Amino acid sequence: MSGTTTAAAALRRRAAGAGANRWVVLVVLCVSLLLVAVDATVLHVAVPAVTEDLRPGAIELLWIVDVYPLVCASLLILFGTLGDKVGRRRVLLLGYALFGVASGVAAFADNAQVLILARALLGVGGAMIMPATLSILRQVFPDRRERALAIGIWSAVAAVGAAVGPLLGGFLLEHFWWGSVFLVNIPLMLVSLPVGRLLLPESKGSGQGPWDVVGALMAAAGLFGVVLGVKRLGGGELDGITAVPLVVGAVLLVLFVRRQRRRTHPLVDLRMFARPAFSTAVCCIVLAMLALVGLELIAAQYLQLVLGLSPLETGLRLLPLTVAAMASGLAGARMLRRFGPRRMVCFGFGLTAVAVLTLLGMGGEDNAPLLLFGFVLLGFGLETTLFGAYESMLSEAPPEQAGGAAAIGETSYQLGAGIGIALLGSVMNAAYTPGLSSVQGVPASASAAAGHSLGEAYEVAGRLGGSAGEALRRTARDCFVHGLHVTLLVSAGLLLLGAVMALRLPRVMQCEAVAVEVPAPRDVMESRVSA
């Protein structure tokens, strides 16, 4: 009798603890995500200081900046599926530890090679952390309505991290040396590791069959090649060094898909893509990022090079975009319940297209109210789209495949961003360069050099000086604004295509009954002791 009473008490404690602790778990997961998101952008403002101190070559400097997102994107599927197999909390805690160690190595790097290695290790740690946060969130919030609210908070934190990175980096560089942008991670990780070990619940997939090591390595190598090739395309590199990894990566990914289809216990259950909501949500994530990441990069260049704003002023001008994205994330759960995934994602794409068309008013002179209005619409529309797509994708995936599904979503995000930079960068260059082919009084060689970018055009104009230099500078600025307008129109077209694609999403948000309570870690220990 006493055993039954004890068991019943344990069950009551477990139910109460699950209700209270799942929101604490969300806080821990959001802190993890914040660090990873900040680290993706915090180095951007520190590049000049790193260059002055370490004197890296051009290729080394490129790798210092790019190796983190490249490695992170390549390993998302590997560590997402490994978490399904051996435990998502275990992979997350290991990611914490590696992220902290790599941050210390990066902070005190005394040459470019050590910094590149440290940034690569940060990418490995980020790849462990990112899919684990989403998959644990999927496990901790089995009720879809609460999960939608949790994903909204999670996505709002991601938006904050991306915006805070450059601002935090700028603040630290004004008071400390460039290594401080990495050193700030260490105390946060030292807190997150024991807190995560104490509070985060462990969860796994079905555990059937061995983990496909060969498939995981094929996926990692294939994604590395594709992402590397896409990044080089975005930089205007069209040589064999771009083509070879792109082709080899694509071949490896095709072989990976064939291998998964033949296996009894695949690493990634490709049958998820047979579900219209899942495959459509993934495509919406790719298309949203494809249309907007390259555009955001071009907008930052416009603010600095055309309007002459400082990096800090540029960050402040883009801040309303982040604030609007946060507001959308926090309101997303209510919007999803009221309007359903289909109307929500269609509305998000449509609103973002309106924002892009509004920004066609950008010209050679500053128009702060127009930019404020356009960036607010842009942030709200983009986050509405991504929230609806992520929530639909994660809800359609079986719980035992949560890590793989989260990894697919994050990989789609990274690939869409890379392809967007390549595609919209190419559109921008195609619209910008022809106008500089024949500027009166400017030699052909100088015009050709100015056609590479607006920043290079300003450098050439400065060397020329006089009326010729001023003519080149004015023409290059006008051509850049023209290219920006063409790019905006292409982006609007892609966004409207996304709105049409989103019509395949479910009309209503289907909330299934919750049959399983998620135990709080401490209550699990108590119930085991009682038993």
UniProtKB/TrEMBL annotation:
Span of domain Major facilitator superfamily (MFS) profile: 25-510
GO MF terms, alphabetically ordered: transmembrane transporter activity
Record-level GO cellular component terms: plasma membrane
Pfam annotation, one family: MFS_1
UniProt cross-references to PROSITE patterns, sorted A to Z: MFS
Membrane topology: Multi-pass membrane protein
Transmembrane segments: 23-46, 58-79, 91-109, 115-137, 149-169, 175-199, 211-228, 240-257, 278-303, 315-333, 345-364, 370-390, 483-503
Main location: membrane
Keywords: Antibiotic resistance, Cell membrane, Membrane, Transmembrane, Transmembrane helix, Transport
A Gene Ontology BP annotation from the UniProt entry: response to antibiotic
SUPFAM superfamilies: MFS general substrate transporter (SSF103473)
Cross-referenced InterPro entries: MFS, MFS_dom, MFS_trans_sf
Keyword GTP-binding included in the entry's annotation: no
Localization terms from the record: Cell membrane
PANTHER family for this protein: MAJOR FACILITATOR SUPERFAMILY MULTIDRUG TRANSPORTER MFSC, METHYL VIOLOGEN RESISTANCE PROTEIN SMVA
Protein name, entry field: MFS transporter
Species for this entry: Streptomyces aquilus
